[in-house]
Amino acid sequence: MGSKTKVKKVVNEVGKRKTAVARVTIKEGKGVVRINKKPLEIIEPEVVQAKLAEPLFIASQFPDVDVDSVDVAVTVTGGGFIGQAEAARTAIARGLVEWTANEKLKESYLDYDRSLLVSDMRKREKKKFGAKGARAKRQKSYR
Fold first, then answer.
1. 39 pairs with which residues across the strands?
2. pTM of the prediction?
3. Which of 3, 16, 23, 81 could bond 119 through an S-S bridge, CB–CB 3.0 to 4.6 Å?
4. Which fold has domain 10-116?
5. Residues 6+ away with beta carbon under 8 Å from 109
6. Half-sphere exposure (CA, 13 Å, Cβ side) for 122?
7. CA-CA distances (angstroms) from residue 46 to 33, 41, 99?
8. How high does pLDDT run on average in the chain?
9. With the CA atoms of 17, 105, 71 and 7 taken in that order, what torsion angle do they form, in degrees rounded to the nearest 10?
């Protein structure tokens, strides 16, 4: 009963974009970044890989933030691959800010791209009944 266990620090955050939802878990480790259990290095296409690496790259510019000492595990569901990438990068950036509690890192994220910390709440407009799409209606000719 008297044994003391060291409490491991774990940070959970969420990022959203369109219908994609990304949940990130950050804990102490060897600098491994996994998206849906896949390492960041093998994520295709390269555009998505670059988007996901942005928050990590910005954080690595700070000498007091050690990106190589944390493991980042992201789970993304819903949406397409770009929506998922943007949701994941928001979650990663939020998680790193929470992990480091670094105000300068937060400011640099906001200066670079506000959507790194603020989820984009825009959604697809619903299709209306009696119409072909959200706004397109059947044309009338009166002839």
1. 34
2. 0.84
3. 16
4. Ribosomal Protein S5; domain 2 (3.30.230)
5. 55, 58, 93, 97, 116, 117
6. 4
7. 15, 9, 27
8. 88
9. -110
